């Protein structure tokens, strides 16, 4: 038997060594086969455990999935940001976890933190002013602010009044009820004669008026009043934004009173094509700048961080 090594003379194995290996080859092959067969179940079990771990990880990722609205292949062009000197954001006073007053008395919430991230990306001074939701569009039109970041749905009606950035999240409408009155499915005929609450002037109220005509509609000025109504039995169901309702249902304020009833409602005619930042019509510089900043915030992972911080409970 001859072996070769790089840059050296061939090495010849001594006859007695060659005889030793040839005589033992059958034994060695048998031993190797036995070891392989013994280890095979262990390998299978290890792979099964690995597969199970991967499945659990995938399930966890799905449970906390972050919506994606941006295509990395469609990077927006960087506008002339030097023309922006300040952005005055308008937001709502009471719509947690999107907008609310923080412990320090300042605006807080997902929308507020996103606005701050956009301003950091654009490198421009920004202010955030909180107003009642029904006054936001008038405030923008009268130049008391530059942009609305308040979970304003993109619909044909709102498009007729303002221009929107790209959507940065979507939320279906859902019903909630006291736990002893939950329905697995909700249809208009199921709520005939039932008392149903919604926020006055909201898309959810408009949807109820159009689709649930046999229900007894009760309108409330804000989420706090709406949720209190279902807790004390003033209404049988409430209908609202699924994300906000999910946080309330799973939070301490609900006192474990209520649960989702039926599935999500996603009609774009009422709940829009998503939620965007509204600017005055024709303000293309600001709209394009915010679109560019939204993409950058998403690309850098800051959007994901914000989403997971505020939306660990599934609204769907």
From TrEMBL:
Keywords: Signal. Gene3D superfamilies: Periplasmic binding protein-like II (3.40.190.10). InterPro entries: Solute-binding_3/MltF_N. Residues 86-314 form the Solute-binding protein family 3/N-terminal domain. It comes from the Bacteria. The keyword Kinase does not apply. Pfam families: SBP_bac_3. This is Amino acid ABC transporter substrate-binding protein, PAAT family.
């Amino acid at each position: 038997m001859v072996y070769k090594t790089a840059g050296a003379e061939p090495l010849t194995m001594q006859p007695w060594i060659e005889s030793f290996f040839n005589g033992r080859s059958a034994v060695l092959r048998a031993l190797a086969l036995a070891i392989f067969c013994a280890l095979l179940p262990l390998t299978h079990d290890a792979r099964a455990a690995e597969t199970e771990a991967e499945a659990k990880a995938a399930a966890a990722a799905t449970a906390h999935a972050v919506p994606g609205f941006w295509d990395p292949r469609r990077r927006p062009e960087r506008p002339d940001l030097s023309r922006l000197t300040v952005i005055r954001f308008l937001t709502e006073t009471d719509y947690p976890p999107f907008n609310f007053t923080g412990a320090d008395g300042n605006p807080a919430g997902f929308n507020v933190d996103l606005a701050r991230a956009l301003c950091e990306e654009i490198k421009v001074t920004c202010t955030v002013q909180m107003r009642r939701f029904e006054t936001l569009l008038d405030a923008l039109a009268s130049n008391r602010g530059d942009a609305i970041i308040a979970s304003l749905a993109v619909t044909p009606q709102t498009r007729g009044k303002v221009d929107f950035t790209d959507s940065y999240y979507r939320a279906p409408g859902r019903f909630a009820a006291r736990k002893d009155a939950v329905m697995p499915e909700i249809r208009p005929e199921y709520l005939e004669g039932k008392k149903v609450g919604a926020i006055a002037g909201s898309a959810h109220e408009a949807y109820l008026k159009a689709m649930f005509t046999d229900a007894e509609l009760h309108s409330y000025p804000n989420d706090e009043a709406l949720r209190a109504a279902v807790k004390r039995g003033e209404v049988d169901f409430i209908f609202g934004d699924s994300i906000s309702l999910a946080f309330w249902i799973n939070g301490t304020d609900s006192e474990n009173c209520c649960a989702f009833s039926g599935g999500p409602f996603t009609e774009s005619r009422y709940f829009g094509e998503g939620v965007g930042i509204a600017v005055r019509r024709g303000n293309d510089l600001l709209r394009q700048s915010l679109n560019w900043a939204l993409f950058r915030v998403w690309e850098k992972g800051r959007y994901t961080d914000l989403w997971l911080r505020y939306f660990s409970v599934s609204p769907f």
